[in-house]
């Protein structure tokens, strides 16, 4: 009887505690600051007014009990800080998330841990806000079944910095412009950062490792990516930085290392009379340094270090016109020329051809034999006494000899 009474009191207190938190939110005047003590707060929370919820000490947990979204924000000027948010629902069609914020501005979500939540932070139609210093991980599901760790939809001029996304699905920036995305870390995700129909974003000093894809830009323009480190993208097609149908981009001072494809360029630049600037990047120890697909011309590829890759240039489409790009002043470890006047510029251009050993480019099934004695012999004979003219891919007019 005593055990039954204790269990009843425990359930009653927890039930009342969850209602008290929502009641406190509902009854608080606009602009209030609710400082929560350490404890477990259950139930989905809805915020429809400007206010702040701050954990005044570590161990403040808001638990969604496996249903829906844990915290829903429908107001500007809201701050959520120093909370542990956990256990959202598992419905993709409902975008069950740790935090959803919509139709907001000048809000802040910072120093929160979001765990065991299908989606992490879902941001829609929210401008001039800060999302910083959060740790986000999804539910323990297969990669494709997890929700996105962080999503920006139709959200402009936000600062997204110093967040850690571990074992979620993607971080996406779609239909969103003018955002600063800096100092973030992503590991064991699918797309660590994926842009679509987005412009004038600034992406700097992020680190992404052991993801399927590092940073992929699609149907976007007028953005800058600088100082990012992408390494060890996983799988046979693991990609460092991808450009598809993008224009007026600057990709500068990034490091891409240990990926299957370092830089992937597909129909970029896309808009007429525009260029992309790919400058001063380190593209190191990848299977393919730069992979061209489809028509890709008018890129400025300058001052990059291309070192230790199995293939420097791959062109999988005969009409991609790789030689129509402006390629100058890069360091190629495969350059075989001289520098007689010691000005650190090669005396002859660095030319890249496609020989017989790259038959796999147009027929992927041949790649099984890549590096085999037969393919190596074909390549040697093609260079020694060509039985067909090799395909000219590109040349660097002024290759560097020293780093």
Description:
The chain is mainly beta and 403 residues long. It has 2 domains: 34-169, no CATH class; 172-403, no CATH class. The protein is 9% helix and 39% strand. Strands 1-4-7-10-13-16-19-22-25-28-31-34-37 form a 13-stranded parallel β-sheet, with no helix packed on it. It has a 13-stranded parallel β-sheet with strand order 2-5-8-11-14-17-20-23-26-29-32-35-38. The protein has a 12-stranded parallel β-sheet with strand order 3-6-9-12-15-18-21-24-27-30-33-36. The radius of gyration is 26 Å and the shape is elongated. Residues 1-18 have low confidence and may be disordered.
Task: Tag the structure with descriptive keywords.
disordered N terminus, 13-stranded parallel β-sheet, mainly beta, 2 helices, elongated, 403 residues
Question: In a few lines, what is going on in this structure?
Answer:
Residues 133-337 form the Periplasmic copper-binding protein NosD beta helix domain. The chain has 403 residues and is mainly β.
List the helices and strands and how they pair.
Elements: H1 2-27, E1 32-36, E2 39-42, E3 45-47, E4 51-55, E5 60-63, E6 71-73, E7 79-81, E8 84-86, E9 97-102, E10 108-110, E11 113-115, E12 119-124, E13 130-132, E14 135-137, E15 150-153, E16 159-161, E17 164-166, E18 171-174, E19 180-182, E20 185-187, E21 191-196, E22 202-204, E23 207-209, E24 213-218, E25 224-226, E26 229-231, E27 239-244, E28 250-252, E29 255-257, E30 261-266, E31 276-279, E32 282-284, E33 288-293, E34 299-302, E35 305-307, E36 311-315, E37 326-328, E38 331-332, E39 350-354, H2 373-384, E40 391-396
